[in-house]
Predict the 3D structure of the following.
Amino acid sequence: MLTPLDFMNDWADGMRCWQATSSLQSALPASAEEARKIGRKRAEKLIAYARKFSPFYANYYASVPDDSALQDYPAVNRATLMANFDNWSSDRRITLASVKSLLSCTDRIGERFLNDYLVWTSSGTSGVKGIYVQDIHALSIYQSLMAVRYLNQLTASASALPWPETLNANRTALVAAVEGHFAGIVYWKWAARLNPWLSGQTRTFSILQPIPELVEQLNRWQPKFLSTYPSMLSVLAQEQESGRLKLSPTRLWCGGENLEKQQKQQIEAAFSCAIDEDYGASEALNMAFACEHGKLHVNTDWFILEPVDANMQPVRAGEKSATTLVTNLANTLQPIIRYDIGDSITLDTRACSCSNPLPTMEVVGRHDDTLWMMEENNKKVAILPLTLNTVIEENAGEFGFQIIQLGPDHLSIRTQGDDINARSRAFGRIRDSLEQYFKTIGVLPVTLEHDQALPARDTASGKLNQVIKMGSQ
């Protein structure tokens, strides 16, 4: 329940976002080089701040001279940051124990932490769950980038609102994993609170429910702006083509997974409207937005992306990286500096023909498959990869697993663990969670077998594809 202090904080957040948006409106860099220059200056300040106020970074950078360039600092990964969580933040009140107290309660999703912050988690594709704390400075930057650099592509009006159709008081919908403290739902709830007069126009829908129930709910709600994952949009597009789903959206938004060109065309044809794509992560929201040409423009004045090879050495534009190091210039509370995000990217060698001067790139992200299984009425039902991830991570507490569909009613599961006994115990927890979920949504009995091999990463992207359908491994 919101308290008077919550309302005061929300009002203050709204004012801060309005100020940041107004500032950002007149701050689009004139060229890609100017954006990089701004980013480099902000990186210098961020590093100096981290070395002074974050005990972890003070120790981690102890051997690096103060005047070093960004690329001279050692890279960091999720496992290292989580292992040093209590010494990572610049606010010494933030501890893993205190954050986990909030995260343990699903009825506190989107609730403020220490009155000033938001907390969200990421999926555990690396085998380690990430926990990220955001302050109002970072949140206002994310919100302002959305309002100015995304909305300005669609309308001449700028607003602090993250959804374009909300400007016209039309209904919006987020279809996502809403049962956990994930970035999408936490950020959505916070952004909606900044505009309480529009609360009746926004609604969230869970990806865990059966598709027929979701279709029925969306048909009743009739959103004009729909935001979800590419895999869910593909399933909804098939429902739209079949006539079971009857929506007339004016805009679609997707993120969190890789959107293939053919997939994009099929979705846009089904709904007769365009898809807007962004590139972001729990560690750094709104790193890039796609323009009308489908090119992802990187907000390099706020996020520095370094494509590197397997040895963490830089690769040139036009070459696909093994992974990418991300520096989030907006978040000084929990500095993300040269963070190995695991995505393979290719920086474009030519400027985009649109009016946006920011550099562009292509991303090879998650390629998890949607599984099709049999219901009790002998109809096929779509099981989204992020649905399986949510069920297993939230209910079984397991991360870094891999599910391979060997048949319509046969799944092979690989798990993490130091030895076969640990992996077997992990499999048991996953099996129990999946069996309960499949029973809940009416899926026919499924054979779940334990593959004793460790999960294998995709050779092209370097990502751990956690859900693989038969024949696509």
Observations:
- The longest strand covers residues 275-281.
